Structures are given as structure tokens and as C-alpha cells.
């Protein structure tokens, strides 16, 4: 669609078509070859210039003319877009203040305020979390004669927030250093050079405006949307990557946080890439997939353990584009969800929403052999649902067991038919822009948005499906994690963040007021569990208006049991506008954190985090200059407000 539009909007600078530069070059090649063939019988005179040489001498001038025409066309197109589409800042509620962006730090900062003690057997390594940090003050909307479009809450350029844990040579004194940095994708660099919002929002809004945003983004930048790279961080074969599923991963230097470029698996992968690739147990291969709005809608790939080759790729031949976010693996299989949250360009062209949760449509789970294809994938019909995150999958007898966070509606839903002037995002839906109480009761419709921990048992022999709610309904659980050594294998423990439902409703964005530990081999016995057969769950709830993001499991050095370790997470206390990091002992899950770090600056809410042990701890000190910080200038952070000259929004400045 976009390519057709691009061709239709190309500017012809002459009524009579002139040969293109590529055609001229091809003509030169042909004539050069023919002239060489005849050169043995008829040498070129030194006083008489060959016609080919004349044309070659004229080539730089032709190139310059072509470049000037292209630049003039681009400037005309930019002028038209700038005059037609007006950017404005999206309104920010007080309860959304910690979703606002921050500036990059000029230099890393030593953490000096630590309450408690970092355990002696806490490994050296990097705790890193990804999340949106929009340029130019925050998320934008556009207004034009064609209608309105706006960013949705999951957009915004990615920023990495990293904590580096180092030990002295004698293993005694600990040093913790923090740094942050934007992921510098190609589209990030484009807008930084332009120093203003340039890509038109192209996901939410009126269908004509979205279609034109697609077209103009493609014409100007050869992309329909920005490469966000704001969702997750993963490691494969000793290299580290930042990712969101609308583009390829970006390789990251884990110490400097510099962006090293796109990873396309040595030129073998040419489509979007999942934010949650999985390492296959036993082989170390990386299982990936990519969703696209045009056919093929879904392809699954397997990357070699050394990261150098794409050893397998298969089109699963889906008949719709489902917004798939995660994939599961077992020892032999890949596990794929085909759910009714769909992206449909044809629906958009007909005047409907681009994104829609079609709860009346089918839902199914596919079990695919590791190197299988569409024909060898076995599909199991399940109740319609929206599942973004899988905790784990494994094989048990004839069954493939799938554990994930399941809701009955989608928090990413459309604003189709709503007036963006009078409405805003609240709990994934649009409601009136009237004042909202900080803590309000939620309706039965809101209840559908909150995910519960769920189990599907898929019998590969009989085709039978058994599904049930595992953990009751006391809390909504999301962003699951396990000890990574058990990925694809039977595990006894899992961990999730707890959705704070009233705070999420009042802010319109998910907030997580604590953590949960799941005991899969123990049955709940406490009063208050809502039905028999639910697993045991322990809760670690935060104090006051404190919420977390990016939680990760850290295995204990020399740990003997699956739950030997800690959960580490960024938290933010909204009452005092202070960000911290908590380390929680998973063996004493309901107790106080063993350590709390007060961060020297605000850390916005984000998405997924990971703890990456460093095999050679000596790498940490020299690269982040920990030894130099013994005498460094530790600055107390104060916050000022700077006015963004492009958008008029306020951005927190670290000084």
C-alpha cells in the first residue's frame, strides 16, 4: 500500500522522461565492455577522446543535478507536511508524571545512598532496563484537515538504564554505578538531526489521517513508523541487543551503552523481530519470530548458538496479522499464540481501526517442531483471550504445558470513533477528560483488562485442551520472569509484577505496586483464595504510592536450588518523586528488601529488565572507570525545568 502511494506521489521534473542514473550506468557498462572487446584491433587515439570518456566526465555533473532535484523534492514535501500537520503535546495527568522523559546523563554516577547491604554472593554484572523516553518532551498528537492521529502509551524512543555492580579485588567493598542512554536507531538520528518531531504518529486516530501518516512517513523516510527499540534487552552468544518488535534488534555495547547498529543475522532476516526471543534448552539456539501487517504475517526463525547463521525459517501461513508479542520454547517445540488482537490495513482503508481486539473471533495455540513449518504445526483451539507474556513452557508426558498472563480484553485497543479532543487513554480505553480520582473503583469492563495467571495443557496425543486460572483473582499479575536456567524446562517457581489496579485506572497506564512469587508445586491454603486448586502465591507489596518496572531474577552465585537468588527492580515513590532500586531475597520474599539504593536522578517507568552476569568481572571496572570514581566529583542532583523550543513541553533536566 505504502509503496504504491510512494510511486503515485513521485515528482516528475520533466514532461519528457529522461534516462535514470542507473540506466545511464548500465549503458556505460555495456559500451565499456564493447569498447574493450574492440580495443585489440583499434586502439584509442591519445589526441582524440573516446565518446565513452566524454560521458564519464559528464557523470559528476549528472549526479549533482540528480542530487539537487532530490533535495528540492524532499524540501517541498517537508514544507507540505509541516504546513498541513500540526504537532502538539499530549496532556499529562499528575498521576502520569513518572512516564515523562529524562535527559541523558553526561557521565556515569556512583550510587552513594544504600540502605541495607548488597549480599556477598550477589554476582558482579549489569542490571539493565529498557523503556520509552520520547524525544522533544513527550508523546505527540497531530491535527490536520484529514483528522487527528496520536502516539499510544507504548511508543517513545528507547532509553537504557543500567546499574553496574563491581567488587574490589578482595571481594569486600562494593561499587554500584548508574548510567542511561538513548538507543540511537536510524530514525532516532533522523529526528535528532532535524531537531523537531518529524515522523507522523501512525497507529491511533482517524483512519484517513493514519493512512496519510503512513504514506508521508514512507515518502520522506522510507519507513511507516519510527524504530522504537524500547521494550527489552537480551543477550545471545556474548552480544547484547535492544529490541522492540516493529524493527530489527540493535546491538548494544553493554558497558558504554553505545548503539552499534542493526542485527539482521548476517543479512538473513528482513522483517520485524520479536521483543522476546527465547533460548532453546540444550542447544543454545535462539528462537525468534517476526510479525508484519502484510503477508507473510508470521515467520518463525532459529538462529545458531553462535549467532552467526539463521539455520531455519518458516512461514506459518496465518490468515490474519495477530499482534503477537512473545513465544515459548520447550526441549522439542516452539509455542505460538494466534489471538484475536489484530492489525488490519484493509480494515483501516475501509474506515475502521488499524488495531482491534475481536473477541468474537477464534483463538488458538500452535505447537511447532523446532525446525517445523506450517504443515507440521499442530493448532489447539482455546477460549478467546489476550496474552502478551509467557512465563514458561515445558513438556510433561503427552502434554505441552503453557503458563502465561491472560486477560479477556486488550489494554492496547482502538480509539475508533472517539474525539481525541475530548478523550484520552484510560486503562487502554478512551474516556472523558474529566478529573479522575487517584483511587477509584473499577468496573466489570476494567476487570477484563487485568491479566490473571493461567495454564493451558495441550495434549499432543489426543488433541485435548485443558485450561484454568492458576492463581485466583486477588491480584492482576504481569511481566513474568523465572530463573533463566529453567527456560523451556519444568520449573517450580515463577515471579511477576503485581498490577495496582486503582492506580492503573486513574493514570490510564499500567502501574505495578508489588511483586508475586508463584509456587507451582504447592496448593494455596490461606483464607481469601478464591477457589480450590489454586497454587500458592506470596506477595511483596510496596509502601504507599511506590511502583516498579523492569524486574529481573538474579541467580545466586553457587546457588543449589531454583529459587536461590533475588529479584532486582527499579521503583519510584510518587509521593516524594524519588527513584530507587530494591533487591529482594526470593527465599524471604515477603520480608524487607535486603538492599535499597536511592537513585541520584529520576528513572521513568519502563518495560522489561534483565540482569547480565559478567563472566570476567575485570571488564567492569576499567570500562566504567569505577576506580577513578574514588576521587570523583559526586554531584547532588537537583531538577530544573527547561522549555522545549519545538513543542512547548517540559523535560526534566539533570544538572
UniProtKB/TrEMBL annotation:
The annotation note on the cofactor reads: Binds 1 Fe(2+) ion per subunit.
A biological process term (GO) from this entry:
carotene catabolic process
Q: Which GO terms describe its cellular component?
A: chloroplast stroma
Q: Which Pfam families match?
A: RPE65 (PF03055)
**Entry protein name:** BETA-CAROTENE DIOXYGENASE
**Record flagged with keyword Isomerase:** no
Q: Which InterPro entries match?
A: Carotenoid_Oase
Q: What's the source species' lineage?
A: Eukaryota, Viridiplantae, Streptophyta, Embryophyta, Tracheophyta
Name the family the entry cites: Belongs to the carotenoid oxygenase family.
Q: Does the keyword Iron apply?
A: yes
UniProt-recorded Gene Ontology molecular function terms? carotenoid dioxygenase activity; metal ion binding
Q: Which cofactor does it need?
A: Fe(2+)
Which positions are annotated as binding Fe cation?
276, 325, 389, 608
Question: Keyword annotations for this protein?
Answer: Dioxygenase, Iron, Metal-binding, Oxidoreductase
